[in-house]
Design brief:
The chain has about 290 residues and is of the alpha+beta class. It folds into 3 domains: about 1-95, no CATH class; about 100-200, Band 7 domain (Tetrahydropterin Synthase, Chain A), CATH 3.30.479.30; about 245-290, no CATH class. The protein contains 10 helices and 8 strands. A 3-stranded antiparallel beta sheet has the order 3-2-5, with helices on one face. Helix 5 (about 140-160) runs antiparallel to helix 7 (about 170-185). It is rod-shaped and about 150 Å long. The mean pLDDT is about 80. It is found in: Membrane.
């Protein structure tokens, strides 16, 4: 805005001078007829001032690569920079950190699952004059070139992974993407601050199937653990039973019968071992009476 006002002020001043010159011409016709060439040159200068930008006001985050007759001549800014139109032209460069939102990509994994991937890039042009010049001379559009590189890398990398590998290796993919982009952007005078995948949309049907599979695995593990616990319990009971003699077994049978007797049942089923034990005990008692 300030640059435009300065230019308008200068242009207005030139108009006033020309008006004064016109008045002088009317009064001093003979003098101006003898200097018609200089007057013509003055009109040409006025046209150039009106037609071209000859004064640039560049902010602290702006630079201008100035070309003279098609060759790089200098870098202007920050502050004021003077051009010599039409032999000089310029390209403005922003040295602030820029954010590039990569367009979402539909990519097919190795196991034929289509996922939608979105990525973002943070980059900036380095402030030294050589880097500013490279950002214009070495690449047509470093923003578009960075975006195309990321898209190509995402498609190539995801195409070699299964869905499960992709989910578990997102950080490795981000690191690979950032490193590869940094390598090629260095020659453009650009620094890559970050490049990463922000979102990854997986079809709902695939997600549901993955959840079911995970639940089935958890149920299987739970059953295995329960079976192992039961086996341990049975082995412990078996080991304890091997240490019992006939008297101890008879004692536990009697205790078991007491528990049965506490119930409301009218029918009782005696184990075969208990019947044999009772016969043995009865036999011994009868022998003693004789």
């Amino acid at each position: 805005m300030a640059q435009k006002l300065v230019k308008q002020a200068i242009f207005g001043g030139v108009i006033i001078l020309l008006f004064i010159l016109l008045v002088a011409i009317i009064q001093l016709q003979d003098f101006f007829l003898r200097n018609i060439l200089w007057i013509f040159l003055g009109l040409i200068v006025l046209f150039l001032v009106w037609k071209y930008d000859y004064l640039l006001q560049l902010k602290d985050f702006e630079r201008a690569v100035i070309f003279r007759l098609g060759k790089v001549h200098r870098v202007g800014g920050p502050g004021w920079a003077i051009l010599l139109p039409p032999i000089e032209t310029y390209y403005a460069v922003d040295v602030r950190t820029q954010t590039i939102d990569v367009k979402p990509q539909n990519v097919v994994t190795k196991d034929q699952v289509e996922v939608r991937v979105d990525a973002v890039i943070y980059l900036k042009v380095r402030k030294d004059n050589e880097s500013v010049i490279k950002s214009i001379v070495e690449v047509q559009d470093y923003r578009q070139a960075s975006q195309l590189y990321v898209v190509a890398l995402i498609r190539d990398a995801i195409g070699t992974m299964n869905l499960s590998e992709l989910i578990s290796n997102v950080e490795q993919l981000n690191a690979k993407m950032e490193k590869g982009l940094s390598n090629i952007a260095h020659s453009w005078g650009v620094t890559i601050e970050s490049a990463k995948i922000t979102t990854m949309d997986i079809p709902a049907v695939v997600l549901s199937a993955m959840h079911d599979q995970k639940a089935a695995v958890q149920k299987k593990l739970a059953r295995i653990e329960a079976a192992e616990a039961q086996k341990i319990e049975i082995d412990a009971v078996k080991a304890a039973a091997e240490q019992l003699n006939e008297k101890a077994l008879a004692y536990y049978y009697v205790k078991a019968l007491e528990k049965v007797g506490e119930g409301k049942s009218t029918k009782f089923i005696f184990p075969m071992e208990l019947s044999r034990l009772a016969e043995a005990i009865g036999g011994r008692i009868a022998g003693k009476e004789k």
